[in-house]
Every structure is written in C-alpha cells, then in structure tokens.
Amino acid sequence: MSETEIDDVLDLIGFGRIQLLMMFTCSMILIYVNNELMGINLLSISITCDFNLSVSQHSMLTIAAFVGLILSSPIAGYKTDKIGRRTMDWGRISGAAINSLTYITEYTKIAFRPRVVNFMSHAVALGSMYMPVLATVMRPLKTVMWRMGDFDVRVWRLSLLAHCLPGAIAFCCMWLLPETAKFMLSKGDSDGAYNTLNRLCLSNRKRDLQSYGITSVTQPHLGARLSQSRRFVSRLWQDLYSIISRPYLRPFIQITIILSGFSSVSVFFCCVSTGLMLKCLDRRVVLTCNAFVAALFGFSLNFIKRRIPQLVAKILFITLCLSSINLAGSIIMDIVPTMLRGKATALTYMFARIAIIITSLLHGHFMCEYCLIIFNFFVDFLLVVAVLSFLLPV
After folding, report:
1. Which 8-state DSSP code applies to residue 111?
2. Are 271 and 394 in contact (CB under 8 A)?
3. Which residues pair with 4 in a beta bridge?
4. For residue 2, what is the DSSP state?
5. I need a labelling partner for 116 at 20 to 30 A (CA). Which of 52, 140, 147, 210 fits?
6. Residues in Cβ contact with 234 at an 8 Å cutoff, skipping those fewer than 6 apart
7. DSSP 3-state assignment of 233?
8. How far apart (Å, rounded) are the C-alpha atoms in residues 117 and 271?
C-alpha cells in the first residue's frame, strides 16, 4: 500500500469512457461559445435592418461579446480557482470556454495534453461550420415567422436560439461529470480526489486503485496557498501578483504575446496537420513552425496575383494561426500550479481578446489608406511570435 503522485495515477488509469464524455462536453462548450462570439456576425446584417442600427451601432454589436469576455475574464479565472472547474463550467456555460480547457487537461496525463488540446480545436472548426450551415438552412433570415401586434418575430431570432443548443447539451453532460481531482487536492480534499480517481479506474480498468496498491494520492509542486484576505479586491490582486512574479512571469508574457499574435491575425486541415506534427515534435517547435509558415504565406500575398493560389494562401495564413491558439494556451496550464491555473489562463486569453479589439480598430481606421502597411505589420508580428514560441520553456 502506498501514496502515489496524481500524474502517475492518471498514467495508470489511461483514457476511457468518462474522459471521452469530458472531451465531448468541453467540445460542446467550445462550439457554443464560438457560436455566441462569431454567430452574431452572420446575423448582424439582419439585426441591423430590423432595428435600423447605424454603422457605429452595428460595429459595437459585433464586438460586444468580446468586450463582455474581457471584462468577465479576471472574475471567471478567480472563481474557477476558488469554487472549482466543474462548478464554474456548469454554472456559467457562456464564460466556460477557457475553463473547459483547464478542466480536460487536469484529467489528461502530461504526455497527451498537447494532442488532446489540439483535438479540442476541432470543436472551434465545427462551430465555424455549424453557424453558416444553420444560416443557410434557415434563410432568408429576415422572414417573418409571426407577428405580435407591431412586433415581427423573424427567423434570425430562431437562429440565435439554435446557437444555444450545444450549450444546453454541455449543461446536461456536465451534471454527470466529477470535479477535477487536482483541484480537490489543492483544496485539501484528498479523500474526494481519491474517490474520483477510483471511479475513473473502475470505469477504464474494471479494477479499483487498491488492487494496484494505491491507497492515497498526492500532488507535488502544488504552489502557495491562495490569499485568505476578506477583501475581494485584495485577494484578486495578491493572486494576480503570484502569476506575474517569478518563475511564471516570463512564460506568462511570452504566451500572452503569442496568443495575441495568433488571435489578432485570425479548420480542420490545420488541426489535423498540427496533430500529426505533435506525434514527432513538441509544442514549442510546432508553434514556431506554424507561426513562421503562416508569416510566409502572408508575405506571399503581396506578390500572388492568381485567384486560386491567392485563396489557398489566405486560408492557410488564417487557419495556421487559429489552430495554434488553444495549443499555445495549453502551455500556461502546465507551467502554473493548480491553484493559480484558472486565473492565469483567463488573463492570457483576456489580453488576446484585447488584441482582437485593437486589431478591429486599426482595420476600421487605417486599412483603406494604409492597407499594405497594416497587413504587413501583422505578418511581421507573426515572426515575433515565432521567435517567442521557440524561446518557450516547454
């Protein structure tokens, strides 16, 4: 009978039905959040016509979801480290995209984490196809289904409701899933962590942990305890200070810039190719190659004149960046300890979303007059991302 590290227990348990349900649930969350963020762009024309919105109001409508995520990310990251990943996902599906990655990685052994996170990127690709297919089936979106006095209920409202279907599925599935054992250990609930892992072992191996001589689990490198101050702002600042201090400061800044680069420049083909590369290369090399090759395709657009090669270069330029976002985010989950992981992940994605808004503003104000300069600025920025990716610690 012995006390065993949790990562060794996860290696022993392997990947089974419950983890597949976790991946399906987290994929549904990613599809749903992608629908909420990007789906409004497909419907914005119909909404603008229905409500007689101005150009500036239409622009505000398209970035509203990103602004909401930026404002809520620090709070969401703080709460997920305080009340748990499953509780946060189940109670706040709309803001759970980042937390879902934290949840699935804490149930995945370290060697498989990059592949699992890359596979989760397929959910973003599915969501990107789900929305236009749905809009095509339901078109024309301005069709009036019924009238309530002077109020016209048009098809685009039904389309918005259909965007919520993956979120409803994830809400139901999350009810069946356990809290992560690593979070339980960080809170001192070793019995709960052991029982959860024992449930996984029975499901995957048809044997309990005691039959393998494991009576308890531990988690090394747990990190410092979270702040116990009674003031919320004080707790938030002290936990944030832990993230932006050594030894996490340098990788945190690197990953934030990398995510900002991939996000601001942005998918099945690239997700599959990334998955194949991960079988023989580590994440650092894959991210470096993706950024460098994307920069080459972007630079080639300055010279390509034919329409078909130009279209191929555009697709590869964008999708190589998109397929690297979650992969880059998975690194911060390995570097930062369990008790700070949710906040660190939320903050890196928050800054990446700020980069998206800044990019949209630059595009709107300067693209017409300085088209080539703005475009090549982002291409050059990908070279910076490639260098920073190569310098990552893992």
Report:
1. G
2. no
3. 217
4. E
5. 210
6. 227
7. helix
8. 10
Q: Which residues contact 336 (CB under 8 A, 6 or more apart)?
A: 223, 243, 248, 252, 344, 345
Q: Show the CA angle centred on residue 92, arms to residues 78 and 162, nearest 5°.
A: 145
Query: Mean pLDDT across the stretch 217-243?
Result: 63
Evaluate whether 38 touches 131 at the Cβ level (below 8 Å): yes
Per the CB < 8 A criterion, the answer to whether 284 and 389 are in contact is yes
Q: Cα dihedral sign for 263, 266, 269, 274?
A: negative
Predicted confidence (pLDDT) per residue in 285-312, tens digit: 888 888 898 889 889 988 888 888 888 8
Phi, psi of 370 (to 5 degrees): -125, 50
C-alpha 392/C-alpha 280 separation (Å) is 18
Residues, the chain, total? Answer: 394
Residues whose CB falls within 8 Å of the CB of residue 159, separated by 6 or more in sequence, listed in order: 39, 43, 134, 135, 138, 141
**How many Å apart are CA 160 and CA 90, to the nearest integer?**
21
Contact (CB, 8 A) for 243 and 250: no
Compute φ and ψ for 64, nearest 5 degrees: -60, -40
Reported as a pLDDT band with limits 50, 70 and 90, residue 90 is low
Please give the Cα distance from 358 to 378 (Å, whole number): 12
pTM to 2 decimals? 0.65
